[in-house]
Design a protein that fits this description.
By secondary structure, this protein is mainly α. The protein has 2 domains: 50 residues, no CATH class; 50 residues, no CATH class. It is 55% helix and 0% strand. The protein contains 6 helices and no strands. The two termini are 25 Å apart. The mean pLDDT is 77.
């Protein structure tokens, strides 16, 4: 698979449009030693996902999420994507990496469990 094909698959991955087979192809690619420098952060993400893929979901996670959602109406909600991030790109959107940073931060808000800071 060429680097351009990998980058195209990566873009689809960050948009949530890849199949499990395509995600396996990406994971296999990022296990290699000769990953280009501009894809090193993506490599770190895939290596972390591979490490955590065999972990079980905590039994009480559904209760924690339900409690969090129920408390949303009782507390002031901070925007998921800060205004400075939204206005950073020329088209009014935000980059995939920015989106993942905020997803990671949101997950940390929901859970008391630490989330690795790798991005």
């Amino acid at each position: 698979m060429t680097i351009e094909q990998i980058k195209s698959l990566l873009a689809r991955f960050y948009e949530g449009q890849t199949t499990p087979e395509e995600e396996r192809l990406l994971a296999d690619f990022f296990r290699r030693e000769d990953v280009p420098e501009d894809l090193q952060e993506d490599k770190q993400l895939f290596l972390l996902l591979a490490q955590t893929s065999d972990q079980e979901m905590p039994q009480d996670i559904a209760e924690e999420i339900t409690a969090f959602v129920n408390n949303l109406g009782q507390t002031k909600i901070q925007p998921l994507i800060p205004e400075d991030v939204v206005s950073r790109s020329g088209n009014g959107g935000y980059s995939s990496r920015d989106r993942w940073r905020h997803v990671r931060a949101s997950a940390a808000d929901i859970s008391d469990r630490p989330i690795p800071r790798y991005m």
